[in-house]
Hints:
By secondary structure, the chain is mostly helical. Helix content is 62%, strand content 5%. It has helices spanning 5-34, 38-43, 53-72, 86-101, 128-153, 160-165, and strands spanning 115-118, 124-127.
Amino acid sequence: MSVNIYDAYIPIYVRAINNTIHLLTKGEAFTKEKGISEADVMAWRLAPDMLPFTFQVQTICNNAKNLLGKITGIEQAKVEDNEKTFAELHARLNSTLELLNGAKREQFEGKDKAEITAGRNGEIKLSGLQFVQGMGIPNLYFHVTTIYALFRSHGAPLGKLDFLRGKDA
């Protein structure tokens, strides 16, 4: 049985990015209320050797865009990772949503079995479906979870439903 990767990828990424926008919105309100500077938030890390808050958002967007390119074969424009404010991160997430919402189901037909190379040197070879399910989605949720954890670790009033349901929480 063939699976259209569109169904396994686009709706999940769109929902997760919308939920990330909700986390950012609620987290930003909390940090403003508490007088935490935007620059401090952008530099937050869960551990000294982890990359900062901004990287987490940028990586969600980069992975969504790069995965779209890998699966469809349509080259995606390079985006600089230079966001330094909540407004810039919101704009980045929204532009990624526009890109994903513009994807057509037909672009993904037959791509479930197509070979996708991954890893820094292309050493990982997976089918399109394996790539989405085994690397793309877990990586997406790793970075969304990190954003959630960064806000929670600083006292933001976010709950499990904020993570799971976003603005519908």
